[in-house]
Amino acid sequence: MVVPTHMVVTKSCLNHPAISEERYSSAAMALWRHSATFSIIIALLESSTAIFNEGVSSSPKQQIEFSPEVPTFAPEMAWSWPDFVFIICSIVTVPPYLVILVLLIFNKKTTRLSTPFYSQIISQGFGDILYIVTYVSLITFGYVSFKMKLSPLLMQLVVSVAVRVLIYCLALRCLGVMFISFQRYITLCHSSSIVYMWIDRASPIRIIFIHWFVATLISLPVLLVRAPKLGPDRSDALQFEDSSFKVLVAVSYASVFPTFLICTFCYTAVLREIFANRPTLSRCSKDVKREIQICIQVSAFVFAFALLFAFYLAECILLLAKVKPPPIMPLMHPLVSGFMSFVIPWTLLFFNEEITQMIKRRMETALPPTITVEPTTTVWSTRM
């Protein structure tokens, strides 16, 4: 993600006891060349009105002193509207998402819900919820830490753990949509192949294990990232080494770009297959129509993935052009990245027939049976 250069300085810069404004700017631009993934942390610690020269002396002769003492943070920390919208969407989305996942787990013996597609939905769902909960917790912690002036060691520990979890969730979510798209491609275009038979007969545990294991392999280099250091004020809130930024950039782009290209290839073939056989769809069996309906639903997942890919691609273009990103770009990352996690449960809830029927059956069994009261005949009524 895009890193606001006015908020971070590298460790190489801190080796100097004093840094002039000119050196500070060049160091910030050097950091920007190695960044593109870390607005998930930096955007939490800045307001939308922060400016580049904050904390930098207006006179080129004056110098900035970096004190080794405990940093003093700004007393005011305004909430940005993208963070607020992201938290509201998370509160609205997580409960129904959990209900869907729990019902899918307890109804796995149902024939229609025992397919590999729903096993992948379960795996993807827990990755989405882990991402949402971690991001909301980090956003809230970022604002509270500035309000309450928490311990720098505590902030450093929380941020260090959250970085690794969020990067892992990025790989997990991108791989999940890619695996779902690949499963749709094999089911609709190569239903007689050996790959289809292997996927169709795979146990849910094996499908979930492969998903999470591959994501672990991709995000494993994040363990090499060193913990960030806290700067003297909010404008320099986090300080990372150049090598750590390079690792974060590589892992993030490896999670997004290849998976989206595979996803695009699979779903282009799926849509071509659907439109090519459109005249004969009315004569297809119910099972084939059901698979086609699921493919149309998954297209919403692919669309959300495309928005995330476009966001990262824009960051990459700015990175290569050595252009500082607009201030709104890092602030919009929670909404753009979270949209892929928000769209999945609501698409299933409103457009998936198996999910809606499963929820209706559960609600009918949970509600107490209605008691019908027979009309009684009194003596007075018989006389009338």
UniProtKB/TrEMBL annotation:
- Show the PANTHER family listed in the entry: CARDIOACCELERATORY PEPTIDE RECEPTOR-RELATED, G-PROTEIN COUPLED RECEPTORS FAMILY 1 PROFILE DOMAIN-CONTAINING PROTEIN
Question: In what residue span(s) does the G-protein coupled receptors family 1 profile domain sit?
Answer: 98-309
Bilayer-crossing regions: 84-106, 126-145, 165-186, 207-227, 247-271, 292-314, 334-352
Q: Could you name the Gene Ontology cellular component terms for this entry?
A: membrane
Stored InterPro entries? 7TM_GPCR_serpentine_rcpt_Srv, GPCR_Rhodpsn_7TM, Neuropeptide-GPCR
- Signal sequence coordinates: none
The answer on whether this UniProt entry bears the keyword Transmembrane reads: yes
Give the superkingdom in one word.
Answer: Eukaryota
What is the originating organism of this protein?
A: Trichostrongylus colubriformis
Q: Which subcellular locations apply to this protein? A: Membrane
Name it.
G-protein coupled receptors family 1 profile domain-containing protein
Q: Does the keyword Transmembrane apply?
A: yes
Q: Which UniProt keywords apply?
A: Membrane, Transmembrane, Transmembrane helix
One Pfam match, given by its short name, reads: 7TM_GPCR_Srv
